Amino acid sequence: MAEEKKGNIVPIAISLVFVLILAVGVYYLISNKNTTPVDNEINLVEEQEEMNTVQDFDEFTFNTITPGTGAEAVLGNKVSVHYEGTLIDGTKFDSSYDRGIPFEFILGGGEVIQGWEEGVLGMKVGEVRELKIPSSMGYGEYGAGSMIPGKAGLIFKVELLEIK
């Protein structure tokens, strides 16, 4: 009689496992019932947009990395600088150091972005500053070229080489 009971347990166990698998499948179908392929595509687009969120600064700031000892840059001066520009995530988009050619502009002449005008003003020859520039003082809503997206905060390391 004990062997007859063992023989009955196996089919019952198999039936229970089958019912459990069926219940999980039905639950899965019901829980995804309201999701259409269009909904799934929208969710993927939203996730992609979140991953591509551009970072920005709330305000302009600068830090002196190396103090300068030479003349101080004032409005109207033609200045010569070396620089490296990166996005907040560290992506480098430009560097005069890499080209080996300093960049020259007239301070206050409207030749550069506002963050540079304010960041270079008052620098002394030999000084190196890190400028953290919000998009409103950089390239704004539309960015610049393919390397600087719109609404991107910028970080520049700027070295004042000469005042001409």
Automatic annotation (TrEMBL):
Protein biosynthesis as a keyword?
Answer: no
What's the short name of a Pfam family annotated to this entry? FKBP_C
Which EC class heads this enzyme's classification?
Answer: isomerase
Family designation? Belongs to the FKBP-type PPIase family.
MF terms in GO: peptidyl-prolyl cis-trans isomerase activity
Q: Which organism is it from?
A: Candidatus Dojkabacteria bacterium
User: In the Enzyme Commission scheme, what number(s) does this protein have?
Assistant: 5.2.1.8
Instruction: List the transmembrane segments.
Output: 12-30
Q: Where is each PPIase FKBP-type domain found?
A: 76-164
Keywords for this entry? Isomerase, Membrane, Rotamase, Transmembrane, Transmembrane helix
Q: Which reaction does it catalyse?
A: [protein]-peptidylproline (omega=180) = [protein]-peptidylproline (omega=0)
Record protein name field: Peptidyl-prolyl cis-trans isomerase
Say yes or no: keyword Glycosyltransferase present.
Answer: no
The record's section on InterPro entries has: FKBP2/11 (IPR044609), PPIase_dom_sf (IPR046357), PPIase_FKBP_dom (IPR001179)
